[in-house]
Here is the input.
Amino acid sequence: MITDGLKDEIAAWLEFYHDLGIEEFCPYPRAVTEQADFQPSGSNRSVEREAETVPMTEASLPRSSASSEQAAAAPRPPAAARSLSLFEAEAARRDRCETLNEVREDLGDCHRCKLAAGRKHIVFGQGDPRAELVFVGEGPGADEDEQGLPFVGRAGQLLNRVLHEVGIRREDVYICNVVKCRPPGNRTPERDEVEACSPFLFRQIEAIQPRLVCCLGAPAVKTVLGLKEGILKLRGRFYDFGAAKALATVHPAYVLRNPREERILREDFAKIKAFLRQPTSPAS
Ligand code: URA
Here is the structure.
């Protein structure tokens, strides 16, 4: 039974799609199949995002004001493919987690801020797309810009060393930055640059669904957690970050400038290791 309310809703949706430039609705179910991201062998993550198939059946709504008899006479898709209405399919598409590949594709050859002009490479991120631990740095330096990879210069070598010391393998984590292009002279990213780039950072984290996000330095803490106090005050503590936790610590470049402070990084990374040793609850 199609009520007046439902008719109005359908009309509103059709108008919405029309405004988006969509004139035709496929009369048959269309399968949207997506290749899953690389799944590391031995991963104990149970998240399955393989080959999602979203039948778009009620998209067969007649474009003209066809009568319900005409609609009933129209070919019907197989029952199995009729499981989602147009509205449900749209909601499912919105609710579905993006993959890192999709975020990367959307970023494209980004020119959303002025950093694009001076970069050699976009440094999107590197590591396990199902990592339990994500590191967020500030922005690529010269070496990272050259290679298109995060933390490969001196700060990266220090990061690798401290990770190794606490028994975390770099290939098991994911590493990215607040901004994906090198700020000139390695200056701190400016507000407009962070505003343009950070939505992609949050989408990366959302795609990975880590248990813990480690913010390296004040700009990462400010962007990820919105906390503006000094890093030495905020460091070493866990904060709520959606379903995950976040830990603030100093940036490895700070330790390179203040070698006696290396103990801070060691202490905080030991906390990370202890956190990751805790079993996850069945629901997480
Ligand atoms: N510093 C950062 O913040 N990020 C990098 O990728 C390298 C150095």
Summary: The first strand starts at residue 126 and ends at 127. The radius of gyration is 24 Å. The mean pLDDT is 79. The first helix runs from residue 4 to 19.
